[in-house]
Design a protein that fits this description.
This protein is an all-alpha fold. The chain has eight helices and two strands; from the N terminus they run H-H-H-H-H-H-H-E-E-H.
Length: 194
């Protein structure tokens, strides 16, 4: 594999290709750290770790060296693909009758507004902004757009949630006065990230 292959993989729509680049970077990073930690040591365990790291590094000679910048690019592309997949899975869950609170709970979303604790509303707002962005970009249209906006409706909602042109209604925007642009590329807070 060559540098050209790295550039090609960075443009891939397959998250496995992008994850491979991240893995190559991460593996070399761990091996370099092991070599630094064991350099000059005569402790038998360190000698074994160093030998194993050198052997593993030698087997990686046929793989490209992924720069830190390329690894960061791969992580960004994985995140983009996950965002696209996330709203589609939420759509499927909503069509199966799953509530916004259940979606938020399973996704590990915690409310950005501690006073209300309404993580269901937070994930719903994120979904509305994400769907609007997908519709604006042309990645979705027609029946899928209709389904995506219909998933916003629930028992507490009595009026249509979308307006002509594929934009969410005013009540479907992000919570806490954030702009749509600031929320589109960021999923709601997750407990694991808190």
């Amino acid at each position: 594999m060559s540098t050209v292959d790295v550039e090609k993989l960075l443009k891939s729509e397959d998250p496995h290709d992008l994850a491979h680049l991240w893995d190559l970077y991460r593996q070399r990073l761990v091996l370099a750290e092991t070599l630094r930690e064991t350099e000059g040591s005569s402790v038998p365990g360190d000698l074994i770790r160093r030998g194993a790291a050198l052997e593993f590094l030698d087997r990686m000679n046929d793989e490209p060296v992924v720069s830190a910048l390329d690894a960061l690019h791969a992580l960004r592309r994985i995140d983009e693909l996950e965002k696209h997949a996330r709203w589609r899975v939420i759509l499927d869950a909503r069509e199966q009758g799953v509530s916004w609170d259940e979606v938020a709970d399973v996704a590990g979303v915690v409310s950005a507004d501690a006073s209300t604790g309404d993580s269901g509303a937070d994930i719903r707002a994120w979904y509305a902004v994400r769907v609007a962005a997908e519709a604006r970009s042309g990645r979705i249209d027609g029946p899928l757009t209709t389904r995506a906006y219909a998933a916003l409706d629930d028992a507490e909602t009595t009026e249509s949630q979308s307006q002509p042109g594929g934009e969410p209604a005013a009540g479907d925007g992000p919570a806490g006065g954030q702009s749509a642009e600031s929320v589109v590329d960021q999923p709601p807070d997750r407990e694991a990230e808190a």
